[in-house]
Amino acid sequence: MSTIYTLNWGIMSTGGIAETFTRDILTNPESRSVHDICHQLVAVSASSSLKKAEDFIAKVNAPGKVNAYGSYADLVADSSVQVVYVATPHSHHFQNAMLALEAGKHVLCEKALTVTAIQAKKLVATARVKNLFLMEAVWTRFFPSSIRIRDLCNSGVIGDIYRVMSDISYANGQSGRSGRLDFPDSHRMVNLNLAGGALLDLGIYSLTWIFQILYHLQPEDEKESPIVTSALNKYKATGADDNTTILMHFPTHGTIGVASTGFWTTTGVNEKNEGMPSAIIQGSEGEIHVIGPAFKPQKYLIITKGGVEAISCEYPADLERKWGHGMYWEADECARCVRDGRTESRTLPWGESIAIMETVDKVLRDGGIIYSEGITSDIFDDKSPLNTGGSW
Ligand SMILES: NC(=O)c1ccc[n+]([C@@H]2O[C@H](COP(=O)([O-])OP(=O)(O)OC[C@H]3O[C@@H](n4cnc5c(N)ncnc54)[C@H](OP(=O)(O)O)[C@@H]3O)[C@@H](O)[C@H]2O)c1
C-alpha cells in the first residue's frame, strides 16, 4: 500500500482569502477522491497581533496543535512549517514571499504574484537558487474543469483555436453616474498604496483564460509571449484602473486574446449568469463557453456543428466540515510538487507567471498607472513595513 504524503502549512495573514483557503486544506482529501497526499495546518500568523492568529485558528476549527504568531518573521522561523501560503495584499507579496524563501520555506503566493515583472523574476531566481517550490496561487488552473477544457482544446474538438476572449467584472458603483465606487478609497481594491486596481486584483483571472489556452498550450519549443496593446480608465477618486481591456497578439501562432476587467459592469449579470460568458474559446469548428465567474466557473458549453453539450463544474464538499470551495486542488498541486522534489508546477510554470506579469507591466505603464517605490522595489528588506504589519 502506498503511503500518504502530508504537507505542513503555515498561513501568512488572517484575512478573507486566508480563511477560505485554510478551510479548504482542512477538508478531507478523500471527499475529492484524492488519496495520495493530505494537508496539515501547523502555524498561522497575523502581521501585528497574536490574538488575531489565535482567533483565526479557533474560527477555522483546526485540529491538532497549531502555532499562533503575531509576526510574519516568527512564522517563517517555525521549523514545523514546510510551505507558507502568502495571503496578504499584492503590494506585500514580493517582500512577504521573499521573507519566506529566505527562511528556507516553500511558497504558495496569492495572485497577483507581485506588483512588477522584475519582482516576479527575483522571486523565481531566489526559489531556483535555494531549490524551493514557488507557485502563484491561481487556483482556477487546477480545477478538473480547467484541465478538461485544456484537454478539449488540445484534442481538436473545436478545431484549431484562433481566439480567446475573457472578462471578469463586478459592478461596484453607486447609483447612476456618481463616479463613486462603493469601496472606500482606502480599500485594497482601489488604494494605490496596496497595489489597487481592477487589473491586478480581478484581471489576473481573465488573463488566466487567455494564457492557459493561447500560451500554455503552445509547444514548449514554440513559446511566444504576446504583443500587448490596451486601454484603461482611471478611477477619479484614487487613480487606480477601473475599466481595462487588453489585446494580446501571438503572431507566430496566429492567435489573439482579449481580456477585460472592471468595476462598473458585471460579467454574467445575474445569479443565473445570464449574460456574457466569462470566457469564450473560439476554434475553426466550434466554441467553448465558460459560464460563471472566471475564477470559479459553474459550467461550460461545448458548441459544435453537432449541437451543444453542457457540463457542470463540481466543487466537492467535505461532508463532515460541510465545506469545499475549490482551492484545495492548488494545495494538492503544492503537496505533490514538494513530495516529488519539484520546485515548479507544470500547470503554472514560473515562466508563465512572469509572462503574465510582463503583460500587466506593459498595460499599467501604457495606461499611466504608477505605483510607489515602496511597493515596486525589488530589493528585499526583512524589516520593510510590508513585512512588519504596515504599508506605504
Ligand atoms: N484566490 C482568490 O480567489 C482570491 C480571492 C480574494 C483575494 N485574493 C488575493 O489574496 C490577497 C489578500 O486578499 P484578501 O481579500 O484576503 O484581503 P484582506 O481580507 O484585506 O486580507 C489581507 C490581510 O493581509 C494582512 N495585511 C498585512 N499588512 C496589511 C496592510 N498594510 N493592509 C491590509 N492588510 C494587511 C492582514 O492580515 P494580518 O493582520 O493577519 O496580517 C489582512 O487581513 C490579495 O492579493 C488578493 O488578490 C485571492
From TrEMBL:
It catalyses: D-xylose + NADP(+) = D-xylono-1,5-lactone + NADPH + H(+). It comes from the Eukaryota. Pfam families: GFO_IDH_MocA (PF01408), GFO_IDH_MocA_C3 (PF22725). Its EC number is 1.1.1.179. Keywords: Oxidoreductase. Residues 8-135 form the Gfo/Idh/MocA-like oxidoreductase N-terminal domain. One of its GO terms (molecular function) is D-xylose 1-dehydrogenase (NADP+) activity. The keyword Zinc-finger does not apply. Residues 148-288 form the GFO/IDH/MocA-like oxidoreductase domain. Belongs to the Gfo/Idh/MocA family. PANTHER family: DIHYDRODIOL DEHYDROGENASE, PUTATIVE (AFU_ORTHOLOGUE AFUA_1G07520)-RELATED (PTHR22604:SF115), OXIDOREDUCTASES (PTHR22604). This is D-xylose 1-dehydrogenase (NADP(+), D-xylono-1,5-lactone-forming).
